[in-house]
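Input.
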Amino acid sequence: MKKEMSSFDVRSIATELSALEGAHMDKIFQWGAGNVLFRINVQGEGKKDLFFKDKKWLYSPAAKPETPIQPTSFATYLRKYLDNARIGKVRQVGFDRVVEMELLKADSEYKLIFEIFGGGNVLLVKDGIIDTCLIQKTMRDRKVRPKEPYIWPQPRFNPVESTEADFIQAMKESESDCVRTLATAVNLGGQYAEEVCKRTGADKTMPASEIPDDMLSKMYAQVKDIVKHVIDVPETTAYIKDGKIEDFAPIQMLSHDDLESKPFGSMSEVIDAFVQQMKNEEEEAYVDPEVEKLNRRILKQEETVQEYKERCEELKRKAEALYTDYQNVSQLLGVLNEQSQKLTWEKLKEGALKIPYVKDIDPSKNLVTGEFAGETVTLDYTKGLDANASDIYQQSKDIGEKGRHAEDALNDSRAELAKKEKGIAKEKAAMAGRAQPTKQFWFERFKWFFTSEGKLVIAGRDAHTNDGVVKKHLKEKDLYCHTDIHGAPSTIIKDGASASNQELREACQFATAQSKGWVGAVSEGSAYWVYPDQVSKTPNPGEFVPRGAFIIRGKRNYEYHLPLELIVGEIDYQGSRKVMCGPASCFKDCEKYFVIRPGKNKNRISGDMAKRFNVLEEEISRILPPGESEIVKEVWPKDDEPEE
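Output.
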């Protein structure tokens, strides 16, 4: 399986990233040992991500990776100096696995350098000096740490710019074989060295210096053909074995003709799929530490139980062997017991070892070891056969008892493991079916919706946020909406100066619905809109303006007969799924929605809707109007109906 990006992969991804030129740097995140994500604002396309994963995979992921809430010191430093920086040229440095991105600020220029080799690194360089880097290290020929000059990695053979004479010289001067020379001296890497040999029919094992000139010319032509395809007409392809991506390349590889091939639209797409595959494999291979500990314990207990069983059976065989060879055993025990009282230990041992079936004797302990009926048994010769057999049977019984206790402990461990695995499986099943939080945006601290033409409308939730929404977010080009009903929120139409009449009516309807008019279950209401300079916190003489309230001076532009009816439906915002509550005209293309009106009885429609939208109940309850609501209509695709 592929372990890293090749120089050709890097050339292909650098070409793709050139589409970011002119875009602006937004947020930067860093987590783990080597994950750095750059969120980039691309004009007309919204936000895109550039992900350097595990310090070895550089690509633009299709889905936004989960990022930490609290930025690391490295991410904070990059944000400080690169915020809103314009992206200039993006290029591969030579033919090395290095990508350089120019970042332009009004007062300075930076270079963001991705080193996709030797463990990987991300460096911010200004005027040739390293400003900061993800990993600091000192090597023989260069130091990688802040305040040190940035020294480019030693340039290697560049097959993109090399001439045929350069290629032939590199091959002729090599002391290695053909394929190794292509991989190292010609800087193709093993994957493409094999490909060139496959395309030309060259002998991989032939010494490079002995390859005929006509074959070298043929090989050079194939190298140039590969380079041309990678740069001009890339055909990003994944090579699959047993349903899994084994390798990928920006060209069609003849050396992988034994594998299934699958085309991809870009290098980022195939890297994204490959990284996701590795993540899935890691999750499948992951073993809970407690489960792993239990498995080790069970394995050891199984070995112990088996040892006890084998020892118990062995002792039984030894005891039975005494009766099988009854005559020899009885005679030996009788002779040794009698002679031990007459002879010295040395004489006794000398005589005993002359007996064919005696293996050893220890007079100091009154023990003799002999082979009886195929079993080697140690006996106490001061005792008779029955007494020795009884002792051995007792040992077998004691071992058997220990074995039963060990087996009970083993069964307990197995039960504990089964319970643990059942709990993990249950937890996984619950997680799979549990609603996950959708991505959160800054405006969700307020009541909010998007108009039919895409303008953001925000409103306060209480007196405190009423003050905040006006003081922090009411700008010159916005409009302010309000209703005369007590307790109504301050509502702002962002960029409202260019809002259509329909959008103004939508915002006024929203302001009315989010007021106490909904609590009172009125059927319709009225609201008005004004310009920012008409909204003031300064009271008239003798008046008092409480928290959350404002003084409106000048003409109020009213909208009448606003129905207290809203839609709760699913929308897509910046590539993320959100559930929004707003006027019906804002949900033209929505396929999943509920129509709600003020209700009189307590109910849990937020919980019911959360289950249908598969989101947290809190996300629904936060967007609903105050008071009780009832569902008067539901629109849902039949294919998405939940199973009973």
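The chain has four domains: 7-144, 164-284, 292-399, 442-640.
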